[in-house]
Every structure is written in structure tokens, then in C-alpha cells.
Amino acid sequence: MDAVVLHMNLIAFSMKTKGLRNFARRLWTVFTRFGFTEARTRTALYALIDLLHDHHAAPTFFIPAVVLQRHPALLAAIVGAGAEIGIHGYVHNDYRTLSTIEQYKQTRQAIEVFQANKIPYQGFRNPYLGWTEQSLNVFSSLGMGYESNEAVIHNVIDRAQLSPLQQGGFEKSLQLFQAIDPCEYTLRPHFEGSLLRLPTSIPDDEMLFDRLRITDPVEIGRIWSQVMQRVYDYGGVYILNLHPERGVLCRQALATLLGYARSRPHPVWIARLDEIANWWRERSRFKLRITPIAPQRWRVEADCTSRSRLLARHLIIEDTAIVEAPMSCPTTCIVQAEQYPGIGLSPRTLPQVATLLTEQGYAHMTASPEQADQFGLYLDLPEGLGETRAEQQSRCGTLIRQIELLDAPLLSFHCWPDDYQAALAISGDIDSVTIQDFFLRILEVSSAKVPYVKTSHAINNQKNLA
Ligand SMILES: [Zn+2]
Q1: How many whole angstroms from 254 Cα to the centroid of ligand 1?
Q2: Are 155 and 286 part of one and the same domain?
Q3: Residue 119 C-alpha to ligand 1 middle, in angstroms?
Q4: Which of 28, 146, 209, 236 fits 196 for a cystine, CB–CB 3.0-4.6 Å?
Q5: Do 359 and 226 fall into the same domain?
Q6: Could you tell me if 191 and 252 lie in one domain?
Q7: Does the pLDDT of residue 12 top 90, yes or no?
């Protein structure tokens, strides 16, 4: 590639992500945050690993396959130190610019690089969180366990304080990340077919540092702690995205966040994304059987693992004197309640509603409209949960909120294992390890658009470039 084309690509790349004004600053930070060797990135990665280790936890890092290919020993070492590694594209490109077949080929190529380097993987996060509906099918068909692309934006930035330029930049980030609003539903993992989706929460470090120029560790620690409090109140998962290139810069802010999470009245589960994914999979197999044995008395059988908790609301558990408290599992007990302790569904309600309630852990049963008064909440949803993704998100969010606020008997599986109220995962995208990686990324993104021949050939091409 000649200098002119490279130059044009640099310009196009910078205009797309940050704007020209930020590009000069970005170039400078590349030289200060990366080095010509792995040393600086290694220090940053271990700063994050060591800090989390103090909290008996470990981080999840996502890396483009071509970058992994150039630094396999470093990646193997951090896996040995307890970190999880996920896939961040074959190269660092935006899947929204790729056809379905290209997404498939590049995802498969990335998987092959991970396998060839014996780096275990379970999850995928797209560069720029740039997922499409087709990406989800591609990830499912290639057997990915989870993806972590849905970006939930928390209202923790005082936008009135921002300059017009910063406001514009912030809006651009929200569009780029296809940001959605926080609620109980959007802050919980959820399945789409066999693929598990783990929501990530923004603003991330890049938005704060590069878009908003917020670099004070105390202020960043305060913002992240505020997000933690909101996620905690919703009982969801806070997945923070912190680029390891700012690992040292953000160490203090991250320590503040972890300390804040640890000081909540109920414990917060600090875990890797694969641990959270494994738990949600385990939880999805739990079963709740509720059989009437007498008026206002039910036998409850919770078929689940010992890590789970059964939540009982507005009912009395016989022989225990427990009211509205989490119960250890698996369990069989008798409960007294004025109504069936779950959600009633009309026969014509689409099966997707029952699937949602099961995944979310709520007891439910189908009953005729004449029996509706036997339920605290009886749903008649023949049109289901909506056609478009936006409609579904909105209806699911409203429904889960309605159930959580329900003033009626209800049995449900708690979202998190043991006695955890919420979850926190520290994740980071290793876009580059060295200065060379940063500049190769521009070449790689354009060469990845060259028609695909076969994987080994493509990998060799990348080796030649390196
Ligand atoms: Zn990235």
C-alpha cells in the first residue's frame, strides 16, 4: 500500500471515529500509551489483573485475532494469571460495514487464530460495539457462547456542563454505540436463541477521556461508582469497558469503583464475563413447579443448583416463619398465598412471553380468562412482545418492571448466585499491544476487505505485514 492510500485511510479512520481535531491528540497519546515493545502494555494489563486479584476476581480482555497472533506469549501469560480472553474481531473493523458472509468469514478466521494459539475463548465483542442483527446469527452459527455489545448508557454526565463540541462528540458516541436506556431488563443478560447477550455499560473510559476530557481519577471513580449504584438498584450486571492502554491511568478510579462495589449493603459479585455467562446458562435450566394442594396453599418444588436462591414475595412459607426472604435451594416447601404465586398467561398469549418469563426466573402458568382473578398479574398478549427490536426491548422492559413492582404473591429465581445483589465485571479491549500494532491496524482493516481466499493464506498475509 502506498503512502497516499495509507494517508487517506488514516484520515478516513480518524474522521469516522473521533474527528480531525481529536486525531492529532490521539496520535500523541498513541506514543505515550504504547511502546515499541510489549513492556508498557504488559505493565498496564498486570496493573488491572493485580488490582482485581486483591478483590479475588479477574478481568476479561477482548483482542483482535491478528493482534493475538503477534503476541501469543503475552496473551498466554495473562490467561495463566487468571484473565479471560475474548475475541475482538479478526481485525479491528466495524462489522456494520461488512456483509453477512464477510462477518462469517472473519469471525471464523478469528476463531481459527485463537484455536491455533490455544487461547480458550467463549465470547465476542465487536470493535466500536458495532454489531448487527446478522452478527448475532453469525456468532450463533459459529458456536460462540456469548457476545457483549449492547451498550446501556447511564445518565451520570451533567451534559449542561459540556462545551458544544463535547456535547456533539458525546452524541456521536451514543449513536456509534447504538446506546439503549437502563432498566431491570436491559441490565440483565438475556438469550437470543443459543447466544447469550451480556450488556455493557457506558460511558466507558474512552468516552470520558477522549470525548469529554474527564481525566481526573477522583471524578472518574465517582462516575463509575454512580453507575454501580444504579446497576445495583436494578439488580443487574455492570460490565465496565476499560481499555488496558489506560490501565495505569485508571488504576485509582478502578480501585474506587471496586471499593464502592465491595461496600454495598448486599454483596456485589465481581466476576469475569465467562463466569457470568456460565451462571446464566446454569440458571436457565432451573425449574419451578407449583402445585395447588388446598385453597391458598401450594407445594413448591425448585429444581436448581445449590448456588441459586428462590425469592418469595407477599407469601408465607410454612414451617419456616420466613416472609419475603431468599431461600436456599434446591428446595421443596409449602407456601400460603392469597393468589397463585406467579404470573398467569392466557392460552392465546404467544409462547415467546412464557420463554421470557422462564428465562427471567418468574413462576408462570397458562390459565383461562375466567381464572384471571386468581393471579396478581394475568397477561393476555396474543401479539407477543412486538415486531421490531426496539418494540421488543421496550415491551420487555415495561413488563419486567411491572413484575418487579408487583404487589402480589410471587416466586422467582434470584438473578445472581449465592447472596449477590448485583454483578460487576471489568472488561477491556486490547486494540493494540505496541505502536506497531496501532499503525498496522489501519493496514489490516483495509486488507481484510480484500476478497477472502482461505484462512491459512489470509493469516500468512497478516504475518507478512507484521
Ligand atoms: Zn476496540
Answers
A1: 19
A2: no
A3: 19
A4: 146
A5: no
A6: yes
A7: no
